[in-house]
Amino acid sequence: MISIDGIALTENIIDYVVATVNDEAITRGALESESLLNHLLWKTDLEVQGIELDGVIVLSGGDDYGLVANGVMEVLNRETRQQIAHIQIKQVDPRRATAVIFGSPAQTVNIGHIVRRPLLNVIEELVLIDQKLVIPIMGVAPNNIIVLSGGDDHGLLPRDIVEVLDRGTQRQIAHARIKQVDPRRATAVISGSPTQTVNVGHVVRRPLVEGVLRNVRTILNELIDRKLMMQEADKLGIPLARWNTKVDVELKATLGDEKLLQEINKKLGLETEEIRDWLRTRLILNEFRDRRFGRVDNLEQQATEYLRHHPNEFYDQKLARKRSFEEVLEEIQNRLRTQIEIDLEEWLTLQRNSSYIRKL
User: Fold this and answer.
1) DSSP assignments along 199-217, one per residue
2) Has this prediction a pTM greater than 0.90?
3) Domains 46-116 and 134-205 share a fold
4) Cα–Cα distance between 215 and 240 in angstroms, integer?
5) How many CB atoms lie within 10 A of CB 173?
6) Which of 7, 80, 298, 313 has its CA 20 to 30 A from that of 134?
């Protein structure tokens, strides 16, 4: 990728640069794709953190993952991605949620299993979001003013930036800034193109990234952190390994079959290679975190070692005995998991402070 004064050139495709990290560019296209892919494929670190006596399971995220009460999720084996059960969200807190299992015995779900929404539901949800963000142009007035057939009902706000597209080809024609918003109508000023290029029947659209769960600043900061980790992984030689086979396995495990991939291509405009690149980066970052800060897939083994070296730490004063391994396993695992997160965040803070980061 070549970056020149805020514009990136990759394989003859021009894109806008939104940030640079040690002179490596992050583009607007990457920003939009990241939000879409995160929403579609879900974070793999949302997992079962605890199982209570009444069969209620505790999840490692809540509002921060966009969970809502009564939402239906799938429980998957982390390694094979095989579906184990369905759960229904019961209560959602800022960083924690509880759920009940249905359709499967409670004992089939274990700590460390991962949780996500059914992908077909997510695709349909994203299509609905995308449809709501597309608004036809119903009039073109002097002074570069266009009139839109939607306003408050489409979530538009004064000063919003929208794209003007050809409805048939989806080709971008211009940008416009929202000027005035009424309940079902809005006006906007075209920028960067002559008014003649915009016609009645063209549509305007806010970038999908603005309609999906998290704000742009949050996603950009995550991409900056990812860039810092990928640069360090490169120093360790991790990306030099052969990842194609692993990506193939992950793609099949994540999406299941070719039909689902075709649905994503058709409805969301995401190419297979974009999804492969995203999965490859995620696998490399997982390997980097495991090597640098400790593995999260063998916490039970680590907990055994911890208990062996700290046998008196879990003495129960009331019962006057040491607590059993089964009694303290979840507590130790949570401690180890938290420590990995703390170590990673401290490392990222040092990297942010010592790197040349520029947001454009």
Assistant:
1) -BTBEEE--GGGGSSS-HH
2) no
3) yes
4) 33
5) 19
6) 7
In Å, what is the CA distance from 179 to each residue of 130, 157, 165, 186?
22, 8, 18, 7
Instruction: Give the CATH superfamily of 46-116.
Output: FlgT, C-terminal domain (2.40.10.410)
The torsion angles phi and psi of 341, rounded to 5 degrees, stand at -65, -40
Q: Which residue has the tokens 């965040």?
A: 345
What's phi and psi for 315, nearest 5 deg?
A: -80, 130
C-alpha gyration radius of the chain:
24
CATH of 134-205, one of 3.40.1280.10, 2.40.10.340, 3.40.50.10490, 1.10.3720.10: 2.40.10.340
Phi, then psi, of 116 in degrees rounded to 5: -155, 165
* Amino acid type, 23: D
Tens of pLDDT, residues 31-66: 777 767 776 665 556 888 888 877 788 988 887 776
Q: What distance in Å separates the CA atoms of residue 119 and residue 134, rounded to the nearest whole number?
A: 23
DSSP secondary-structure letter at 110?
-
162 touches 206 (CB < 8 A): yes
- The pLDDT score that the predictor gives to residue 329 is 74
